[in-house]
Amino acid sequence: MYDGKAADIWALGICLFRTVAGAFPFKGINESDLYNKIKAGLASLPKTFSKELKDLLHGLLDVNAETRLSAGQALKHCFFHDVSRPEDSTKPPTVD
Questions:
Q1: Which of 5, 17, 43, 80 has the most beta carbons within 10 angstroms of its beta carbon?
Q2: Residues 49-74, mean pLDDT to the nearest whole number
Q3: Sign of the C-alpha dihedral computed for residues 6, 65, 51 and 47 taken in this order
Q4: pLDDT surpasses 80 at 85
Q5: Which domains does the chain have, with CATH numbers?
């Protein structure tokens, strides 16, 4: 069954990978091979990625929507521990 939120999290994983690596996480020799790798979750993670980033991406790109990280779980991931957030992150940021 389709789960829009889980699909958005997977897409976020693709965007994060693309932003950090400058490439897409799935590579295939043809369209069919690429599709099979996407369905199997066979992302190519560079050795230069930190273990925290690799772990986050594995959670975001989990092919099983039920075990994929939620948005809340992703934000609490150790990859983001050094990122400062507003005290009340439920409100949108304001520009002074």
A1: 17
A2: 95
A3: negative
A4: no
A5: 4-80 (1.10.510.10)
- Token representation of residue 21: 């690596």
Spatial separation of the C-alpha atoms in residues 59 and 32, rounded to whole Å: 24
| pLDDT tens by residue, 29-46 | 999 999 999 999 999 899
Percentage helix, strand, coil, to 5, in the chain?
50, 0, 50
Closest CA to 41 of 12, 64, 15: 64
Q: What is the average pLDDT across 72-78? A: 93
Question: Which residues have C-beta within 8 Å of that of residue 39, sequence separation ≥ 6?
Answer: 63
Do the Cβ atoms of 70 and 56 come closer than 8 Å? no
Backbone torsion region of residue 87, taken as left when φ is above 0, otherwise alpha when ψ lies between -120 and 50, otherwise beta? alpha
What pTM did the predictor assign? 0.80
Per-residue model confidence (pLDDT) at position 80: 86
